Every structure is written in C-alpha cells, then in structure tokens.
Recover the amino acids of this structure.
C-alpha cells in the first residue's frame, strides 16, 4: 500500500518524462542512476536528499510561507532556504557564511510548506537538521546560543526555571490517574490556563500529579534551535520521569510539549511509552461521556486561532475538528472563523525560535496574525497555545488594541462549568 502511495506522489513527473526528447531522457536516466553523488557528503547527518528535492521544486508553497510574506525577501522562501542549506551541506558554501546561517533560522517551522508540498516535505524539519550541523561546528548565531546556555543551566529556555518545589502548581495527589504536564510558557506567561486546567481536574475529582520539583522544559525549543545534544539530555530525564509515573495518561495544554513528547522524542530515540494527549482530547471525551457537564452559558462570539503544531496534517494528531466540536457544546458560543484556519492556519510568529533569531520580524508576524483574527469582530480571540496567546498579547500592546480579550480554550471551558454541581 505504501508503495502505491509513493508512486502516486510522484505521478506528476510521468507527464514531464513523456514530453522529454531522447537526449533529455538519457540525461534524466543517467542522472537518476548516479543520483546519490548529488546528496551524499561524508560526515553529514542532515537529509540532503530531501533538501535537494525541495531546492529543485518550483517553490509551490511560497505563497503560504509566513517568513517570506513578512521579510519580502525571496531568499527566505522555502525552496530558496532549502537551496542554501543544500549548498552548505555539499560544501558549495562555507558554513561560516553569515547570510547562509541567517537563512537557516529564517523559518518558524510551522509546516505550512508541507501542507502544500506534493512530496510531503517539511522544509522546517530539514532546516532544523542543518542547524544541528551548525551547532556541531560551533557556528550557531549568538542570539540563539543563549538558549543552549540556559538549557545547560536550568533545563529550560528561560533565564530562571519556572519549575520549583513550592510552586502553587506543584500538586501531587496520592495514586494519580493523570500526569498534568505543564509547559514552561504556560507557567511563565499564561498561569491563568494552568489554574483553569487544575480547576477542571478538581471539578472532575481526578487525582493528578505535576511533579514540578522534578520538571524541566520538554526540550522542543532547544531541539528546534539546533541543539540536539542538550535536547537529548532533557528528553532522557523527562522520559525517566514519565516512565516512572504510575497513571495511564499524560495531558498537556501546550502544543509544543505535545508534539515534542510524541514526535521529537522518537527522533531523539527517547520515546515515551505512556499515552500523551492534548487536554482538548481529554476534556472533550469527558464531556461526550456525560461526566463533565457544560451548564453555564458563555454568550460570546469567538474567533479561534488554530496552533500550527496540533493543526497541520503532519502533526501526530490533528485536533482541528475536536475544537469545533467543543465550541458547539459550550452554551452560548458562536464561532467566527478567520480567513486562515484549520490546516491552513497562519503561524503567530513564535515557532522555530524565530522570535529569538529574528525578533523584529517575529513581532510583525504577531501583529499580522492578530490583525487577521481581529477582522472577525469577535468578542473573544481564543487559542489553545500559551505561546500563541503570548504573541497576541505582545501584538495587542504594540498596536494598543485593548478592546479584544484573549483567552485559552481551557479558560473558556472552565467558564461554562457550574462549580456547585
């Protein structure tokens, strides 16, 4: 079955081959037979083969690349970045070239390119591999190097770890059923979402644990920055922590943590055996089972921003439909979709350490996406990612647009619960 899928993916090339002259066909066949010489370089671990495919593509996804839209520089289109990365990998450009280094970090790793790619290639994933090559050579830009230093110091991307023993969120019930895996950004910038989640778990009388005294970052941002060794160290410690958990489920509000624990940990060879789900799946199931009852009308028009990491087709699980189902079940909610939503959502600008490597352009992306959401004229802007919500808060401050409230879906859900029932 996989063979047929693969053939179907490349079927568009058949017509091109048919239209070739004899000499062109011979060159094509000769090139195909000797293809490995074009993407093989000793000591290079990055996927040069897929970089070459992406580099030779007519840039079919460029119209949906947020960093290209903001920078207005063709160099930062997906295929052009792949070309630069490929030339670096094949030693056609020296790794010391600053402009080439900048191109590797001019990506939010949002997978918009993959959404439109006929070869199912994520340019972002390929660029992350090339960032790892930069790290091996000690050439990561100073603006990004700070993340590595912080990871070595306290296991997070922040100057000081938000995880500590006497935190109000360090809750460890006896015989916990659920491990509530709280993200760094949740605690640091959106503690309201953590309190709302704890409120719902308490309402359901579900014993849970957070183990904040043993916690650190999931390692996703460190990995995306190119620091594989540091990400591996963090993932190994988190793997040990979660494998020793006696319950059956890990839930997290953070799409970054969700994608990292499920996908990146496999890449780092530290897989998590216990089930890891986003909190939308957990609470929606409780509602559908009749265990969690939504009885308080919210009576608001909302605009929902789909986070890239749990909305693209390349995600471990696509939660687009789950959120729409939830909003139908909350009394009084009317959903207004922005122009770009679902699998075709637009990145907030915080992905792939872009806000660290390109802060001014990242802010432009915050404002750009925030403006798109504002165009719906909704009462509330709602998302399911504390990082996205942090970006929109920054955009709100920058544009002095204080008339729209920004909430997480978990806060919205908590508002619809009668705590006396």
């Amino acid at each position: 079955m996989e063979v047929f899928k693969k053939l179907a993916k490349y079927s568009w090339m058949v017509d091109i081959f048919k239209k070739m002259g004899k000499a062109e066909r011979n060159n094509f066949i000769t090139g195909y037979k000797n293809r490995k010489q074009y993407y093989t370089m000793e000591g290079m671990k990055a996927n040069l083969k897929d970089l070459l495919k992406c580099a030779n593509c007519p840039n079919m996804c460029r119209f949906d690349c947020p960093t290209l839209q903001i920078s207005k520089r063709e160099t930062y289109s997906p295929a052009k970045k792949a070309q630069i990365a490929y030339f670096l990998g094949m030693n056609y450009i020296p790794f010391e070239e600053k402009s080439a280094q900048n191109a590797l970090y001019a990506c939010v790793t949002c997978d918009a390119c993959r959404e439109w790619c006929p070869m199912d290639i994520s340019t972002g994933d390929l660029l992350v591999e090339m960032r790892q090559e930069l790290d091996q050579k000690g050439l990561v830009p100073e603006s990004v190097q700070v993340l590595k230093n912080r990871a070595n110091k306290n296991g997070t991307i922040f100057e000081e770890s938000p995880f500590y023993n006497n935190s109000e969120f360090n809750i460890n019930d006896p015989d916990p059923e659920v491990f509530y895996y709280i993200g760094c950004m949740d605690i640091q910038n959106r503690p309201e979402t953590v309190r709302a989640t704890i409120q719902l778990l308490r309402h359901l009388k579900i014993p849970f644990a957070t183990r904040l005294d043993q916690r650190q970052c999931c390692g996703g941002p460190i990995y995306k920055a190119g620091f594989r060794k540091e990400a591996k160290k963090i993932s190994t410690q988190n793997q040990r922590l979660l494998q020793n958990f006696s319950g059956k489920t890990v839930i997290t509000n953070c799409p970054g943590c969700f994608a990292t624990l499920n996908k990146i940990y496999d890449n780092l060879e530290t897989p998590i055996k216990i089930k890891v789900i986003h909190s939308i799946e957990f609470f929606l199931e409780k509602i559908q089972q009749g265990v969690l009852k939504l009885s308080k009308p919210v009576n608001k028009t909302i605009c929902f921003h789909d986070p890239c990491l749990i909305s693209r087709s390349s995600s471990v699980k696509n939660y687009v439909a789950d959120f729409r189902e939830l909003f139908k079940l909350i009394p009084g909610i009317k959903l207004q979709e922005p122009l770009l939503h679902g699998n075709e959502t637009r990145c907030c600008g915080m992905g792939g350490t872009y806000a660290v490597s390109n802060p001014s352009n990242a802010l432009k992306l915050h404002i750009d996406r925030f403006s798109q959401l504002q165009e719906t004229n909704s009462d509330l802007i709602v998302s399911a990612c504390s990082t996205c919500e942090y970006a929109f808060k920054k955009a709100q401050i920058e544009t002095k647009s204080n008339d729209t409230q920004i909430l997480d879906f978990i806060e919205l859900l908590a508002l619809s619960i009668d705590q006396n029932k």
Observations:
- The domain at 35-139 is CATH 1.10.1060 (Fumarate Reductase Iron-sulfur Protein; Chain B, domain 2).
- The mean pLDDT is 93.
- Strands lie at 178-180, 208-209, 249-252, 275-278, 300-304, 333-336, 380-383, 405-408.
